[in-house]
Amino acid sequence: MTGIVIDAEKCVGCRQCERACASAGIVVENRTARVTESCTLCGACVDACPVGTVELVRGSAAARAEDLGTWRNVWVYCQLDASGAPLSVAFELLGRGRELADARGENLVALLAGTPAPGSAEALIAAGADEVLLCEDGRLDRVDASLEAELVAHLAQDLRPEIILYGATAFGRELAPQVAVRLETGLTADCTVLEINPETGLLEQTRPAFGGNLMATITCPAHRPQMATVRPGIFSAPAADPARRGQVTRIAPVAREPRVRIVEKASARSGPSIAEAERLVVLGRGIGSKKSLPLMRRLAELLDAEIGCTRPLVEAGWLEYPHQVGQTGVAVAPKLLVSIGVSGAIQHLAGIGGAETVIAINEDPEAPIFSAARYGAVGDCIEIVSALVEQLEKSTR
Ligand SMILES: Cc1cc2nc3c(=O)[nH]c(=O)nc-3n(C[C@H](O)[C@H](O)[C@H](O)COP(=O)(O)OP(=O)(O)OC[C@H]3O[C@@H](n4cnc5c(N)ncnc54)[C@H](O)[C@@H]3O)c2cc1C
Asked: Is the pLDDT of residue 142 over 80?
């Protein structure tokens, strides 16, 4: 594995390395530098050393071309919520991971670390995992991503997974790159499509690129594991099959203490997130003006739905950013999504791929949103929504 190597004979004990390190990853004792378990491999000490004593050695973690075939199985890192239950994105990734593992004739492995609630491992097996690697250790409760990265990287080195998938949550975005650095492999962030190329066997990782104006398909042909993050709501979670059987393998706790301590938790927004909504009414510029919002809100109320919107509505100040659906907003996966006056730009569609049934209302029959919709209504959205509201009000009286 990559590491910091110190030539003790050359070290003059000047402490430049210690001063340059932001994480107490190197200390000088008895006039000799020593690497601690807090080292993040950032290399600041290497640059700071005036006598060339400290070296960042790139080791054997990287898969070599000749041993690529020895990396097998698909892993899904299953993040837990505050109550210890796996996040919904973990189940969504297991659903897609199952298909990838089947395409490769391999096992699907769920990685569970921290303090999982009772029944979590069984739930992951019911969602498609063949095996759960379980590291029950309260120090891994999403406090210090570097600690968890150490665990995942060590496990990956030993067990050699071919693919690792992570949810692109705030924590997943911190964790996955740190694992990638430790294993010297690639990472594709915010994938919207994951597929196995039947000829090469490689994981094709597709994501919006160049400001979302095209979709890029990325592969990692020369390193293992192939790693990707996927935002919540991009894939659908599979139906649980309680009859499925799998193995739970316990992993030893990690050796060191976390360097991060949570002092206080503050919520940026109260109220339910549209990412979790079962029904959504998504509004676009076609609603004409802010004055149409009460009508749209009434429809949402009658459908028991949350409100989402396109980016221009946030930019215009009609709705706040947490309502924005899309590549730079929230990825949603409702059972029902009613899209009103939305053109269906690629950056918007990137956020609604997980929706089960899309009904689109747009006056332009050529609008791209219709390609993502199961049902469509062509016409003026104010007229159509007014009629809908009237009907729904009649039926609920
Ligand atoms: C880097 C980048 C990231 C982006 N991220 C996002 C993102 O996360 N989410 C997002 O939504 N966008 C995002 N965008 C913007 C995106 O490209 C589109 O500009 C945006 O989605 C368009 O919003 P819209 O459909 O509301 O508006 P428009 O494209 O203007 O479409 C309005 C639609 O309403 C229809 N319409 C007009 N009047 C009526 C009427 N009376 N009745 C019925 N239909 C009517 C029109 O036919 C049209 O199809 C991003 C852009 C970039 C460059």
From this structure: no
